[in-house]
Fold this protein.
Amino acid sequence: MASLLYYMLTNEPTNGPTSEDKIPSLKSPITREIKHSLIFPSHEKLYDLAQHISDHSLSEKVNNYRFGVVPRALSADFDLSPLVIDKYEVDSILVLELVEQGRYISLFVKHYTGNDTKTIGVINLAKTELSQGYSYIAKRVNQLLALQSKAVNDDYGQEFYQQLAMNITEARALSEQFYDAERVGKATSLLENLPLQTATSLAIQCAIKVDIGWHSNEKAQFEQAAHLCEQALIMDSQHPLVKTTNAFRLFRNGNLEMAAREYQSILTETPHSVEGLIGQAQLSMQYYLQDPTKHFSALEHAINLQQQAILKDPDYWKSYHFLSTFFYLAKQPKQALAVIEKLTELVTNEITLANGALLSLCQAELGDARRYSEKMLDINADSYVAYETLFFINAYQHKSERALQAMEKAMVHFGDQGGLFVQWGQLADAYRWSGKKESAVTHYQTALIEYEQDKTKNQTTAHDNIYSMFFQAAIYRMRNQPIAAELIEQLSELDVKEMPTSYQLKAAVLYKWLGDNQTANTIQQRLVETCPIYSQAMDLSD
């Protein structure tokens, strides 16, 4: 199950609202009334409220309310971007018209004084358009609630969520999906073509650049991300999404100390911030990954933080996603699987279902593993992830031909993600198990080339070398040649116990190929304690 950690650590599923986008405070009675009206909307009530606000003096109105991108100098504690309907998000794109009216107001208050006819006329125009903006929101709220009602019988609310995913919301959803260059490009295009930029839209663009930079290891992407986050901070330095995105940028850029300070600041100012807790948990996990033996308590701390996040927002998918990851790293797959089962009640996509399938496979629950895989194919008949998962399931059932067919289909649909040495190695394994030695050798050689290219780009870890050793050893065996002495020496220098489980499995196979069955069995038994399915590992049970 080589790719399990890859899915769990590098991707965040979507299809759900983000906790951080909820209205952060309910300081004023008007704010509370507006939020209540949006959660339990009535067109007449909301329109009456708009009329009530419009009757206030313009100066008082501007001093007490802030609409979207209105300059912070105009102050206040009320932000209509985004609104919240029940647990579903309506992002700032739905109030762009209202934002434009807010821009009118900011100009008038700053540049017009006196009682001349022109000033009064312009102010009245702004008041009228502001009222119309509220009317527009009321209409959209009712439309969205109708969609929500229609989607009640839809287990995952796909239709409803897709209807909500307009412009900023859609761009955000696209940018957070399993890394796909086409989707990221579409999200970027949506954001760059907005009628105006908000702190939220800039923060999302910053997050996209961070994600691209992290996957491609391109310094220029991080530099662009820094510029976008700086712009977002200038526009609204207190917006929760802006602050957490900037902290995330620092984290991904390797500035762990600065990221830690940012997340601590977020939690000091907003103790209920779920994104702040998630960020601190990821930091703790990163410290653990740097030195698992020295920082094991950091992993326990990460689990504790994620559990706190769930208590604060039991319906936020991201908390469950990371908690399942942390439980898996802590060698608690049963707990990880229980969390995944809860996660799939909240959201559904290929990555979440893949993790459910692989964790079920880990526990030797093959029926559940196949059920998760079939759900993936229901979502996307061309899913690379689904076919790779079926490869693992068939491999552990010793169905060599089916494993090969699944992995061949997986690689057909790999698309722009192609080139990962692990996947080429898995395809080579499938050919070897099916007795197709020449094809196996060819694909192991491809895997080695991909590994060396990734290594040159600093995109490999110290543990990844075990795969390179495995590929070389497999080629020697299929050519009936002795395994090179330098590989044996390299293997003896490795601390296998500190490796992820899938890496330990490769080490166990290498020891078996070298004739050291005792060491191979010791490693395998240790793995079985975590994942019972390893007792059926293809290369250790033949």
About this structure: Confidence is low (pLDDT under 50) at residues 2-116, 133-138, 140-166.
